[in-house]
Design a protein that fits this description.
binds 1,4-dihydronicotinamide adenine dinucleotide; binds 2-oxo-3-(phosphonooxy)propanoic acid; Rossmann fold; alpha/beta; 16% strand
């Protein structure tokens, strides 16, 4: 009789939906960090056994956590953005990293388009107007036309190009900002974000987060967008200089913003809630059941590939 193969130990900084937890429990020894009363003691106790971390985008894995796990081989991220994971620390130790690209493109692109429509046509305000009974006293104020505008997409990768595909049906003029022009794109290319902000009516941001893009949407970009310009951010809170954005929104030096992402989520700056020219959304770009199931499955396939000695499905590092 052969001894049963021990199941690999996996540290989870935060939970996944139950439909993912059940199959993970059956294949791995899970260590639930979010339930530990003393994180340091919990990590120290289990560190020698932990071979993988299964994390989420916003929880990431910082240098301190990585350094505390000497047997770590893999960090699997439930989400495409890996800006919360210290990739340099991983590369230095040969720790592999995976994410969940592509399966969420459609949902995040749908939300970007939905937020654009909600912002300019004031759909949440319309809903509140009807519910409050204000309609009985007269019509809702007029809004801004979406079709016929110039829309600039900043970050023209998997999700950015999915946004462009959707908006191509909206009779708008499309431009994109990227470091190198895409040979297969018929849209107007901008090598300068400020120049695109000056050109467009709506600036949609879907760049990766992290140091390279921190505050890339700065006061100068917002000024170029101008009092008739709108910002839609579905990327990361860090890509926008939030102080400059709040000031621009308060002074109405831009027309408005629809935001799915913020600094310090979920405890965002309370100044946002006092504004009437914003649509606010709780970082839910991939938040449909179908996509979350696909993301969970991709995390599991990466873990299985790693522990089965097979090539990773969606490696980042
Ligand atoms: N709001 C939400 O719920 C979600 C947000 N995201 C965010 O969207 C980001 C983009 O995702 P994908 O499209 O899958 O990534 P991607 O890697 O396919 O596309 C990113 C694009 O940005 C470009 N880029 C990177 N740095 C740049 C810079 N400094 N200047 C100009 N262009 C630059 C890249 O060349 C690439 O074309 C993720 O990293 C994540 O932060 C992703 C999913 C959901
Ligand atoms: O995949 C990512 O990077 C994300 O931001 C996912 O976030 P969400 O699914 O929108 O909460």
């Amino acid at each position: 009789m052969t001894a049963p193969t021990p199941s690999p130990h996996v540290l989870m900084p935060g939970t996944y939906p139950e439909w993912d937890m059940a199959p993970l429990r059956s294949q791995y020894t899970l260590h639930r960090l979010w339930e530990a009363p003393d994180r340091q003691a919990f990590i120290a106790e289990h560190a020698p056994n932990i071979r993988a971390v299964a994390t989420r985008g916003e929880l990431g894995a910082n240098a301190e956590l990585i350094a505390a796990l000497p047997a770590l081989e893999l960090i699997a991220c439930y989400g495409v953005g890996t800006d919360g994971i210290d990739l340099a620390a991983c590369r230095a130790r040969g720790i592999r990293v995976t994410n969940t690209p592509d399966v969420l493109n459609g949902d995040v692109a749908d939300l970007a388009v939905g937020l654009t429509l909600a912002l300019q046509r004031r759909i949440p305000a319309g809903d509140a107007f009807v519910r409050s009974g204000a309609w009985a006293n007269g019509g809702m104020p007029l809004t801004t036309r979406v079709f016929g505008q110039r829309i600039g997409i900043s970050g023209f990768g998997r999700i950015g190009s999915a946004i462009a595909r959707r908006l191509s049906g909206f009779d708008v003029e499309l431009g994109y900002f990227s470091r190198t022009p895409k040979a297969d794109s018929p849209h107007l290319h901008f090598a300068s974000l400020t120049a695109m902000a000056d050109w467009c009516d709506v600036l949609i941001v879907i760049l990766p987060g992290g140091e390279a893009t921190r505050g890339i949407v700065n006061a100068e970009v917002l000024q170029a967008l101008g009092p008739a310009g709108w910002l839609v951010n579905v990327s990361r809170g860090t890509t926008v200089d939030e102080g400059a954005l709040l000031q621009a929104l308060e002074e109405k030096s831009i027309a408005g913003a629809a935001l799915d992402v913020f600094l310090n989520e979920p405890r965002i700056d309370p100044r946002f809630a006092a504004l009437d020219n914003v649509v606010l959304h709780p970082h839910h770009g991939s938040g449909t059941e179908q996509t979350r199931r696909a993301m969970g499955e991709l995390v599991r396939r990466n873990l299985q590939a790693h522990f089965g000695g097979l090539p990773l499905i969606t490696p980042v590092a």
